[in-house]
Amino acid sequence: MVERLCRGPATVKELAAPLTMSLPAVLQHLHVLEASGLVRSEKVGRVRTCRLEPVALRAAERWIADRRAGWSRRLDNLDEYLSNDAQSNENQEEKD
Amino acid sequence: MDRSAVHDTFSFDRHFAATPERVYKAFADPTAKAQWFTGPPESKQEDVSFDFREGGKETATTIIGDNRIGFVATYTDIVPKERIVYTYEMTMNGQRISVSIATIELRAAAGGGTDLLLTEQGVYFDGLDQPQYRRQGTEQLLEALAEWVG
Question: Considering the entire predicted model, what is its pTM?
Answer without folding.
Answer: 0.67
